[in-house]
Amino acid sequence: MISKNAVKEVLDISLPAVGEATIYTLMSIFDTMMIGNYGGNKAVSVVGISNEILYTCVNTFIAIGICIGITSFISRSVGARKSDAAEEYASIGFIVGLFISIIVCYCLFKFSKEILFFAGARDDILSLSNTFTRITIIAIFFNMLINVINSILRGYGNTYTPFLIAVFIAAVKLILDWMLIFGITVPEMGVIGSAIASVVSQIVGFIYIFSYLTFQSKIKIKLRYILCLSMDKVRRLFILSLPSSMEEAAFSLSRLLCTFIIMRAGTVAFAANQIANTVESISFMPGMGFGVAATTLVGMKIGEKNLKKAREYTYVCAFGAVAMMSIFGIIFLFMPGILVNLFVGDEEKGVMYIASLCLFVGAFEQPSIAISSVFAGALKGSGDTKSPFIISLATSWIIRLPLTFYFVYILKLSVIYVWWITVLQWGVDAILMFICFEKKIY
């Protein structure tokens, strides 16, 4: 029997997390819409290939990497009523996150052109993508630090502040996008204007959230823990975070390689896939939000040594995620063309047609993504990051990548086949995550 209190706690944590993720996704959607209406499929390709690479690195090393370890350790420490341990992990996590962010951004900046060339960018697209990427890397650095601070706040159940930060960043970004891309009161800058808007919005967002962490957060960074760094806790943080980072790497790199394969199919196929992915990404937000809630709440209950409550919270999260994502699935089934039409003009009919079909297929994977996200989050909250990594590695590299290579690169079939492949991938992924959770927490 699920208690009303469990539902309330899940909603209190998950809804702001859903809102945060939704705000960032809407920001990306409106950004893509403005870029698409400004420069068509070429402009979408320039920004799309750059963002795919940059945010793959953000997720792999920070958002789904070290941040998961930080949230898990802080939530379990809070559940066990060990606030000193929580603040020590927060301090260690911030320094480790800063160090990783510097290294990743330096490598991306230094090798940006080579990476984009390997991705399939050529000629004008390569030149413009390289300029766009190098400017956006500055924004990515501050975005990584914002993610680290968000993970500290989520560790003690504060998902409301990251939501407010997301609203602030998105508002600054979209206002500057409108002004700089189209030249409203300033010289017209196109896709470069979008990159500059990202830099400014992320810097002001970081200043805002770092100030909150320093002066208002219940869990703060303490200088004494930084000066007397516990290498044992650093090691434990890496041991927990590494499988989660590798999980994201297994998924994102396979997705990125699939993107490279699609890029070689031409700008029409790539732009259609990019637009469909952008529209569909809004539906992922409930899964992400309830997954965050599952990580935090399960971590707290494991800290309290209350497995029964950990299971209860997980199933409440799963039900909420499936219900909300299924609604998006129904929308994608019945009105894909209307959604796609927002991103490109009537002259891009080929892009519109393919993107609409991709989005239609994407409707069928929504419940599976919800189940996978929540049970993976619950496993990570319990301290098990290895099982999600193994599952993601298997479904991404045994199902998604080989089948995409065969159907799109070898047989030269439509990009729509990629979407049917992901339906299969997520179905298998969801089943395996559920089985692992049942064996782990019983």
Which residues form runs of ≥5 with pLDDT under 50?
none
Helix content: over 70%
Order of helices and strands: HHHHHHHHHHHHHHHH
Oligomer: single chain
The DSSP helix count reads: 16
Tell me, what's the shape?
Answer: globular
Report the radius of gyration as a whole number of Å: 21 Å
Summing up helix and strand content along with how strands pair, one would put the structural category as mainly alpha
% residues in beta strands? under 5%
List keywords for this structure.
single chain, 442 residues, mainly alpha
Description:
- There is one protein chain.
- The chain has 442 residues and is mainly alpha-helical.
- It has one domain (4-440).
- It has helices spanning 4-79, 83-110, 112-119, 123-155, 160-182, 190-215, 223-227, 231-263, 267-281, 284-303, 307-334, 336-340, 349-362, 366-381, 386-410, 416-440.
- α1 packs across α5 (160-182), α1 (4-79) packs across α11 (307-334) and α15 (386-410) packs antiparallel against α16 (416-440).
- The radius of gyration is 21 Å and the shape is globular.
- It starts with a helix and ends with a helix.
- The mean pLDDT is 89.
What topology does this entry show?
Blueprint: H1 4-79, H2 83-110, H3 112-119, H4 123-155, H5 160-182, H6 190-215, H7 223-227, H8 231-263, H9 267-281, H10 284-303, H11 307-334, H12 336-340, H13 349-362, H14 366-381, H15 386-410, H16 416-440
Quick take:
The chain is an all-alpha fold. It has one domain (4-440).
